[in-house]
Amino acid sequence: MADNAVILxxxxxxxxxxxxxxxxxxxxxxxxxxxxxxxPGMTAGDWAHIDIYIDSPVSAxxxxxxxxxLEENLxxxxxxxxxxxxxxxxxxxxxxxxxxEQEVVSQIKSDIQNAHxxxxxRFVHGRTAKRSQAVEMAPNRELLIGDFVNxxxxxxxxLELAAEQDTPQLSEDALRKLSLAGGLLxxxxxxxxxxxxxxxxxIITALQEHWGVTPTEAAVVAKAAEAxxxxxxxxxxxxxxxxxxxxxxxxxxFLDVLFAVTTSDGQASFxxxxxxxxxxxxxxxxxxxxxxxxxKVPEALRADA
Length: 305
Prior knowledge:
The protein is mainly α. The chain folds into two domains: 4-140, TerB-like (Orthogonal Bundle); 151-301, Orthogonal Bundle (TerB-like), CATH 1.10.3680.10. Helices cover 69% and strands 0% of the residues.
């Protein structure tokens, strides 16, 4: 049976191949998960390393790195046969593989068929040619696997801003803090199960005014926060992390920002006000500090008034 390194690297290559045409449909995602689930030796701990590639498009350079990684892990003809059969199954899984997918899979299969196994000398030769160019130089999103699992908003923001900007405009610490703020703002806006266009704009404006970021940076954070707030976010970690990087004054002032977002679409609903109360508690602010912030909002704009 192939070892875990072969199975995991093969699963990543399969996902990368499915991204060949720049998109993955729900049907393809389900097929990929079914195929990878049935690969021998897959463990629950492996899923994050697969999901991180399902999450967003895989570039040609990144795909080449993954293929090179798979080639390095192949140790026998049986490993190669397993990989080739899995790639064939990928093309047949949804019955509508695009031409781009077919061409990419064909190239990957050719690389695998030509890969050397069982010989140290040939392995080193292959490693020198492939790894120096594909592995060391290509993007590697798994370096951010911790953030992908524990701080998804920051992960998405970091990825998108890196694609849009030649050099980072914000420090890592500032970007992490901004992402936490965006998450809490989106959490309040989504308290009534929707984020209106007015609330979205209010979040962008709040991020610009209170953190001095560019319109692009604010929009990227708002987009990532709103996309992830409906997912299974760890709200305790989100709140606690924001507490750890802010002063008490910043946290008290932040309550005003939260209330400004809730009233941006006409009125702060009971659910939104209650959400802010819970956030205030999670930020270790007193009930009186919460009340003081709430009373700054005109009664006509508060559903609980």
